[in-house]
Structures
1.
Amino acid sequence: MKFFVDTANLNEIREAASFGVLDGVTTNPSLIAKEGDVDFKQHIAAICEIVQGPVSAEVTSTDVEGMLREGREYARIAPNVVVKCPLTREGLKATRRLNDEGTKVNVTLCFSSAQAILAAKAGASFISPFLGRLDDIGENGLSLLHDIVEIYDNYGWETEVLAASMRHPIHIIEAARMGADIATMPFKVIDQLFNHPLTEKGQAQFLADWQKSGRK
Ligand code: E4P
């Protein structure tokens, strides 16, 4: 399973890359807004200098022509830019056109298997089911992920399943058990994956014993 970090913060992206486990980046308009008054295209270019893998840049137009205009501009920023389109009627029309032009599209805001089927049919390179936001309203995000992986496997569809809106390590572990292609997660969640009290305790003991033995 590939690991993407879900942030537009350059320090977090650098730090995640330094762990040696980072395969890509997802951004969205809210994450870009958190970075303040940055120039969008320059900021995406800066991310692409840090990470070689796919970097998702989301369109903010709501009509197909606007999405195509933005998507074509974003695709020119760097070869690893993936255009992110919402799972709307206009978003899927743009997905089909961009895909046919050779631009990869990540279809975002997916909350049902029916929507995931449409995205694959429209030529999406990635489908992003939002697990955490479903959990927030009392639905089961992992169950949706399971269904999408199964449906895509039935047909050998090449659209990669990008589990998104991941909130904690259990989401990541279960997504891996289900065979999701990618998990995108906030930096905090990548960091949490390291934690185990026995690792910390064991390391402290090893170092204490080493020092007690008089070695430096
Ligand atoms: C995915 O690409 C989205 O940016 C993201 O996972 C949304 O997550 P959130 O529900 O934590 O905002």
2.
Amino acid sequence: MIETSAAAPPAEAVADFAEDVRRDLALSPKQIQSKYLYNALGSCLFEAICRLPWYRITRAEGRLLSRWAEPMVASLPDPVSFVELGSGSGEKVAMLAEALRSRRRSVSIHLVDISPTALELSERTLGRLEHVSVVGHRATYEEGLRHAANLRSPGVTMLVLFLGSNIGNFDPPAAHDFLTQIRGALRPGDALLLGADLVKPERELLLAYDDPLGITAAFNKNLLVRINRELLADFELASFDHRAVWNAAESRVEMHLVSRKAQKVRIARAECTVAFEAGEHIWTENSYKYTPEEVVERVEEVGFRSAQQWIESEARFALTLFVAV
Ligand code: AVJ
């Protein structure tokens, strides 16, 4: 981690956060958007989650990439440019870039992330590779993708990487819209590599999202820590429990924060007081799980054709390569 002190977020970001929290805690059920999980501490906790034995997505995807990176990039005509949406540490895109090096192919890589920490980390990881030029975009996925597409030189083939099952945070209509936007930024012959976690036994899913070390609980409760600090609220952490639920009908794991008692919480900067009943939930995240066929269907709907799918059969995770038609 690069950040050593908790720098205050810009006033504008605080105002947006306050408005979102005020609006979403007035909904029924109460909600907080999952994007707010990723402040500096939340991002560290997520990195820790990725190393937990019970959370297998990151390692399963890493195994697929280290084994199959060469065929994943082999069919893309030169020159190529990669755009990674949500770059994290940059290690995954580096594995694909390494696969090009053995064929003496160079690549320009666009990293899109809202977190400056993630961008710095990825730039450092990729900076070690001589055949790679890196452009960082501190932006939302949509903005960053548009920028990267606008910077494309004629004749360049683009490969968009959307890895780590980040697609799982989108509900089906939002996933459809987002995939449509990706397709809209691409030309026929460009490609998309999509990582998606697969449906698996409930017991495994619940261990991944409610781990015995309590790291996922800390990750979830950090939302309340963040609201307390940034929005001057008085959430009592000990009065909320982390809960993970498998919603089979919707094919998603949900994370919630459950109020242990009837209580009122003042959120000064959101100018509201929120009342909780005992047992009332704040819904903080969805992680949709797919079947391999569903991944193909959802993406083909928006103007891609699937080229190949690689499945990690133990952890049940899929990487699927699509070509824009
Ligand atoms: C980063 C959205 C892929 O849903 O698995 C991990 C986030 N939440 N543990 C996921 C997360 C709880 C993660 N994604």
